Amino acid sequence: MTLRISKLTKVYDNGVKALDELTLEAGPGLFGLLGPNGAGKSTLMRTIATLQQPGSGGITFEDIDVLKDPKRLRQALGYLPQEFGVYPGVSAERLLDYLARLKGVADRKERKRLVEQVLDITNLYELRKAEVHRFSGGMKQRFGIAQLLLNNPRLIIVDEPTAGLDPAERKRFLNLLREVGTQCTAILSTHLVDDVRGLCNEMAIIHNGRVVKQGRPAEALRELNGKAWSRTIAREQLQGLESNYFVLSAHYRPDGEIEARVYASEQPGPGFEATEPLLEDVYFLALRSA
Ligand code: ADP
């Protein structure tokens, strides 16, 4: 169940290079694709999902050549796009039944069994008679997972699924993703470092259409051990600090002072304290070093 992407390049008609020889490999489990807005995540997700063509490069999943045989990939794929529309006035159950039919499940009884199963997994069974277009953001995203599970996918792709969810909905959605993502290869794209922490066993950070860091979050944190430093400064000092040190991030505190986090291989100077590395540090270091 390995997804291999090699030297994928995409230049849009307006000249924007969204993917620049992007190469990565994702095995079973949850894989976090982390990057700022405009990094190329959606372009990559849509290309893997066979919805658009790259300019050059290759994609394979198991023994499937995705670009040559998109039909076969679609049979193995569950995709939750960034935005998905639903018809008003249709219940969750009916919509899932319809989608299962589209996915080729011809037998009515088998469809009923499948629909009940995915409603159950996503905790939407009680809401099966409710209209999907009246669902809250979190319920809609869980419905999105229900629909993608209908064909028992071996590759799951979810594109920025937590955008717009409140914290409780987000947590519930990520827990669901954790459950369904363990049995297949699941790629989660996000600009939120918090979505990746504690959830993904592998990650890639992408920036300007390239992978700038790939590996296990825990390992990336270990590499930063002893190299993350923090210091509290006044607002006026930030600019000076930035010109003299490798500042990873600066957080305003309620008292108006700033906690600056700095990357340095040894004690950078007076006032700095060693601090435990955060995944956010890994992220900013990768972006800044690119
Ligand atoms: P992300 O999902 O990481 O925010 P995208 O893949 O959406 O990144 O976009 C990558 C870059 O490609 C951005 O600069 C974006 O403006 C550009 N882009 C995306 N889609 C199109 C398109 N259809 N036509 C032209 N440019 C696009």
What top-tier CATH class of the largest domain fits best?
Alpha Beta
Strand order of the largest sheet: 6-7-8-3-9-10
Uncertain residue ranges: none
Beta percentage is 25-35%
- Biggest beta sheet attributes: 6 strands, mixed
For the record, give the distance between the C-alpha atoms at the N and C termini, rounded to a whole number.
30 Å
CATH fold name of the largest domain, please? Rossmann fold
Give the helix tally.
Answer: 10
Broad shape: globular
The H/E string reads EEEHEEHEHHHEHEHEEHEHEEEH
Structural class: alpha/beta
Give me the count of strands: 14
Q: Layout of SSEs?
A:
Elements (H helix, E strand, L loop, with lengths): L2 E9 L5 E10 L2 E6 L6 H8 L7 E6 L2 E2 L4 H7 E4 L11 H11 L5 H14 L15 H13 L5 E5 L7 H15 L3 E6 L2 H4 L5 E6 L2 E6 L1 H7 L4 E6 L4 H7 L1 E7 L5 E6 L9 E2 L4 H11 L1
Parallel strand pairs: 3-8, 3-9, 6-7, 7-8
Antiparallel strand pairs: 1-2, 1-4, 4-5, 9-10, 11-13, 11-14, 12-13
Adenosine-5'-diphosphate (ADP) binds next to α1.
